[in-house]
Fold this protein.
Amino acid sequence: MLRSVILAASRSSQVERLVATAPFTRDVVRRFVAGTGTDDALRATRELVADGLTVTLDNLGEDTVTPDQATATRDEYLALLRALDAAGLTPAAEVSVKLSALGQRFDEQLAYDNARAICVAADEAGTTVTLDMEDHTTTDSTLDTLVKLRKDHPSTGAVLQAYLRRTESDCRELAGAGSRVRLCKGAYAEPESVAYQSAREVDKSYVRCLNVLMSGAGYPMLATHDPRLIAIGEDRARWFDRGPGEFEFQMLYGIRPEEQARLAGEGYTVRTYLPYGEDWYGYLMRRLAERPANLVFFGRALASKK
Ligand SMILES: Cc1cc2nc3c(=O)[nH]c(=O)nc-3n(C[C@H](O)[C@H](O)[C@H](O)COP(=O)(O)OP(=O)(O)OC[C@H]3O[C@@H](n4cnc5c(N)ncnc54)[C@H](O)[C@@H]3O)c2cc1C
């Protein structure tokens, strides 16, 4: 219930104005977001890589409504990839891209062209691109774009969301050799017709999908902070004899950093999803919806009136 309210608020420009201008917001945002500019992103990437982690960078922004905004997002990514390359941070750092930020909602061809330009720049920089997955109305379009991009850029990563009923079947489709697939639970409010509603059903689906990916020929990227699912991931890695370079764990910046360090210390590849940029509102609200206990941070910051 609280989750749905927070996710509804994530689409409200009135609430956005309220949250964005509140004096305490800065501290809360800082916990989950590297900063607003490319320099902040590079600094945080350097620190994470020095700690033995790998990184995927997300230039925050989604649901652009004009071609100019979409082109500006593309250009941000091109500049970021050049900067990562110049700083010697590739291939430890790749990028995650939302097609809605590249124009998907009003011009799929434009979104594809922009994503392709980012894939070309990533190839030149010696790294990879992963296409984030958004709400279920975009799943087919995103997977179609993935198939097109993979023709010239086979390392382009997909994201599949275990809460969608279709995902086990999508995992089978995408478990082929060389296929990079991030498996996550899913972060949007979805109707019963397309998505499992209870945490238990989502977890069971996650395990079925994880089994398909880990027993397949691709490169699974297990994106979760859930201790039980991480333990199952470790178990399946042993069972299917996958070494550290043959799959990876992924977690979000600022969430369970000790667990990220523990897994990296065990020799696993661990990738931190590192968001940066001005447009942090939707991202922050999804993190709050996942764990309403995070509202306590808001509460504390509000109480201290910083
Ligand atoms: C690398 C990465 C990429 C992602 N990409 C996408 C994507 O493209 N599309 C998409 O829909 N979703 C994406 N997600 C989000 C994902 O779908 C989930 O919403 C999110 O990861 C929470 O699910 P969980 O598996 O961690 O399990 P949960 O059951 O939500 O959490 C398990 C435990 O993790 C900790 N935890 C989880 N979330 C938080 C939080 N916000 N703050 C503090 N602690 C927390 C808590 O200890 C919690 O008990 C991504 C997640 C990761 C890690």
Remarks:
- The mean pLDDT is 91.
